[in-house]
């Protein structure tokens, strides 16, 4: 097997780690990587070789970079079983590497080398609204589409008017906050006369969404001004 072939194999089967010494125990931890959508649940597993497990074996979990075992901290989002650790209602702050350790007679006998948890955060709900300055017919009307904070960074946003994609007059800004989440503001400047009933759509695609998220704005009055109503947002 070539070295390049070994990487996906390890990702699927987990990683075996052995601590040197007479009391060392082979520990199989899996998955090596886990990606979940915020709000869903994640499960990590850790096992010892069959002939090395006995009644004196205890399994502990911790998160890399944090002190103390997770098993010893009361938290109703964390469920521990004999070979597994379930993390419920995952949020972005849960991202990181989780490790297991096998203890025998109060001593660490073996360790896993970690399961990396990546949390995808959807950019929903979307907001769509006219820019506050649009109050008279002398100013070209502009709509703004705003996402919620999301992760990872890659995102696609498309504007349309009455079923036709709008490619001009678009200006988008992306920012990253202190928590590592991203947010996008996209404005669409209308250059054509606005008619009553005109439908504007902001459509957003992101890896965390099963189908694109949609925000709609329907003009209830023609210019002057850019008055309208925001219809119910559709997203998933």
From TrEMBL:
Domain (Ig-like) ranges: 8-118, 123-220
Xref: PROSITE patterns: IG_LIKE (PS50835)
Keyword annotations from UniProtKB, A to Z: Immunoglobulin domain
Transmembrane feature ranges: none
Official protein name in the record: Ig-like domain-containing protein
